[in-house]
Amino acid sequence: MTDVLGRKPPRSRARLWVATLLLAVYAGFIAVVTLWPSPSDLEFGGIADRVLAVLHRFGIPETFGFDELEFTANIGMFVPLGFFLGLALPRRGWWLALFIVPGYSGFIEFTQATALESRVSSILDVFANTTGGYVGLLLAMTMRAMIYARDRRVIARAIWERDAEIIRARQHPLPAKQAPAPREYDTATRVFEQPAWQDPSDAPTERLRF
């Protein structure tokens, strides 16, 4: 059977390689941001003040302060992580992300509590990070399900059109082309209905019967 069909086409690994690369880069970015020994070097305080000023200018209540902004930022920071993780994992192994996301967040908070004196660890941060990671995972799985359903429809339509063409060809076969029968000429036609001869000596001659 394989000889008739030919060599099996290879699987596409583009999604896996790209998603894994983005996942590694972004996970490293989160590690640098959250595990940097001196948070003051990253100027988070000044950035947070400017962001809060803009939000309050656009009508966000003054009660939305630094703690609320930090909680929201923790959610948003882990959304891309969950999204890339959902793309990198196999379709049947997506459930591993349910443990990887909180595990990675727990590792960060544990390192902050045990090895970084300038950092403050909180179980609330684990909850916020896990929530953001699950949101990104849901987005990735939804996108993969939509693409999978679209590909199935495209393949099914291509197969239907191929089968319809085969059935149509069987029901209405094309007539075989027949070669034209050789034309028979009488003696006078062979002599007088030929094209104009450039050289009279090349013209065909016939012996006429009297």
TrEMBL record:
Keyword list, A-Z: Membrane, Transmembrane, Transmembrane helix
InterPro entries per UniProt: Teicoplanin_resist-assoc, VanZ-like
Start and end residues of each VanZ-like domain: 24-143
Highest taxon of the lineage: Bacteria
Pfam family, one: VanZ
Range of residues in the leader sequence: none
Chain ranges passing through the membrane: 16-36, 71-89, 96-115, 127-147
Protein name as annotated: VanZ-like domain-containing protein
